[in-house]
Amino acid sequence: MEKTLDMSKVFDNLEKLQGILSEKYKVQEKIQEVPKQLSSQEELLSRLKKEYIEKNSKYEELKEKINSIKMELDEAVKSREEGEKGMDNISTHREYEALEKQISEASAKEADLRKELQKEEKIFAELDETIKADESCIKSQEKDLNESRASLDKETGSLKKELASLEKKEAALTPNIDPEIKYKFERIIQRNYEGIVNVKNGVCGGCHMILPAQFANEVRDENEILFCPYCSRILRWQETKDGEEETYYTMTEAGSLADLDDDDLLDGEEDEEDVEDEIDENKDKYVDDDDDEEDEEEEVEESDEESEE
Question: What is the DSSP annotation of 122-168?
Answer without folding.
Answer: HHHHHHHHHHHHHHHHHHHHHHHHHHHHHHHHHHHHHHHHHHHHHHH
